[in-house]
Input
Amino acid sequence: MAFETWTLEQIRSFVLARKALEDPLLDTSENGDAWVDANAVAHVAVAMQASILESQAQMFPGTATGSFLDEHLRMWCEDGRRVATAWEGTIRFESLAGTPVIPTGTVVRHADGTEYETTTDVLALSWSGSYATAAAIANTLGTVGNKEVATVLTVSSPPADVSPTCWLWTTTTSGADGESDEEGQARCLATTRYRPGGGNWADYLLWAMDIDGVESAFIYPAWDDEDITPERGTVTVIPRGPEGTRIVSAATRAAVQAHLGTVAPSGMKVTVENPSTSDQAVTVYVRPATGFEPDWTGSIGVTSCASPYTHVDLDASPVGTVAIGDRVVCFVGVGLEAEERVVSDVGANYVEVTEPFSGTIAGTTTMFPGGPLWAPVKAAIEEVFDDLGTSASDDAPRPRFPRVESEHPSTVFTSLIVAGVCGVEGVNSCRLTVPAADVTNEETPGDPIVLTTLDPNLSILWE
Output
């Protein structure tokens, strides 16, 4: 039975009514002695109600927050609440002359204020030509320290003969944000709703989620696989990263595989894979509301973009069309994944951007205008694809236990794409031209597959 509550006014009226029964001649008018007494009692009662409701919420993992949720996580999940970690990797320095020494503790800074500190010395023998790398760690915990390869940084106090410009070069360990209340609730619910057994489906889901960077997984079991033993079978685990990260890195897959090797029942054959990809082109024309227009109009052909992927050569001059501070969208790499960047310089037949693209931009693509709507519209379309795939239930964090022999109902409904785009603030209307009709996943039953990798074929245009 739900805990019934009353408003301050209701409780005050109850108290005054009771007092009036005892003394019919009592003055119960507003701000009289009796009214003031009743008002004080009502405030205490309302506060007690609030405390009861708060305690009620903290009793359950799905509604607990703060230190109360910490206790639930400590009780149900071995590692408790996950804490934030710092990015670790290497920084690449450039010499202006000779082979200078760069001591441990040298601080470099990103334009957003994120600082990194070297943890090894750069000595004379460390240099290869004009460049040398040093191990480093972010001074700020969380994903803020995770930057793309070749991201430009600045040496705070460069030693003699060292360029003030340096680059984030490789990532050894990505930084992770501390677990939010919502994420902790979801993980705790997954543990309590799908209680661990001797290697059941839920076990593999939770074991996969033990690894940083894995927020859910598809589990494809075949318990009765006679190719292994009559008693054991095979399990295919397809880990999924945070929203919008349907394919995890090779390092994350290897970590999941190694972890499952230590916890899975003896005799089980466990494989960890990324899902097969089935790229789906999506082209949507967006009509923005006033104040949400793209930063510029038209489009310009791209000739090339050389490492470190900040200088984009064009087949026409952008001068007069694109200005510093405008956002541009290019298609990057073999899969032509759309990426938006901010322009830092404009010249004859080229633009430069503040953050490097993640890879080579081929000369067969086009540069399109970005703007305030591009990123949220992209996210809205990706969310439609994130929701694809068979599932045992809708419970957080969307556990997926599809049977290997079953079909995979992963239809892309065009109506959901249109609804998602039109739900973005600043979108007046949209026109979806590709796909022209709902797309059904036609993969062969038995093949662990979810439709993935929307980004490489995503075109957001303006009208």
Remarks:
- The chain has five domains: 8-58, 88-173, 195-272, 295-370, 377-462.
- Residues 390-399, 403-408, 448-456 have pLDDT under 50 and may be disordered.
- Residues 114 and 136 are 13 Å apart (CA to CA).
